[in-house]
Amino acid sequence: MLSRLTRPQAVAVCALPVVALLATAAFAPLPFSVAQPGMTANVLGENQGTPVITVSGAPTRKTSGQLRMTTIVATGPEARVSLGDVFDNWFRTDRAVMPRDAVYPSGNNIKEIEKHNAEQMQQSQDAATAAALKYLDLSADKVKVKLKLADVGGPSAGLLFTLGIIDKLDGDGSGGDLTGGRTIAGTGTIDAGGKVGAVGGVALKTQAARRDGASIFLVPKDECTDAKAELPKGLRLVAVTTLKGAVNALTALEKGKGSVPSC
Fold first, then answer.
1. DSSP summary character for residue 99
2. pLDDT tens column, 157-208
3. Based on the domain organization, do 199 and 232 belong to the same domain?
4. Range of the domain at 169
5. Considering the domain boundaries, does residue 67 fall inside one?
6. Other CB atoms within 10 Å distance of the CB of residue 139
7. 3-class secondary-structure state, position 60
8. Whole-angstrom distance, CA of residue 254 vs CA of residue 178
């Protein structure tokens, strides 16, 4: 058949399957999620009308400044992300195209994912409470901490929860605030021993932090490179690996002396 066609006609006929393939690929769902900067919340204040941190069994102090945990928002696990969506968002600094498995556990439905994220959040809150009380040498039998943050899941608020508990109970240890009156944001997991762990979406979280007024951002040291990739102007990175290191860095910033580890 092709032998009876002119060369332009033959080229056009041969190109049809390629065009069809590209068209199909452009609209076919791909295993990616598109993420962007999400909400932030001051753990020293209220979220949706409810205090984020409530302490009983020990006196608390009035704080100034803010400690803002940060989030990202991603397309849902069942959302259709096409090749066109990937191209549209790939070069945007306020978006990130991420493998879906890096955002959501592979093979789980929405209810299972929500349950998994809620369990991670509860574990993070338990670890944050344990790490804070251990740092302050307080007994968990006497001091009770309740943490409540609506519509947020996962473990990445652990470090900020811990710092918030410490600030409410002890501040900088000498009458001042850990924040020094600043708006400080950050991210990072925490374990009961005070070790800070990496999270994800740091480059987007720095944008959320700056948008909401932060001038300092606490970031797990292992993620410094990612944090610097799209760092907003006016936001200073402070690298942390442990709870003690984070407290020392904030105290040094507050007092204007001492070592502040940077990325």
1. E
2. 999 999 999 999 999 999 999 999 999 999 999 999 999 999 989 999 999 9
3. yes
4. 36-78+105-255
5. yes
6. 9
7. coil
8. 7
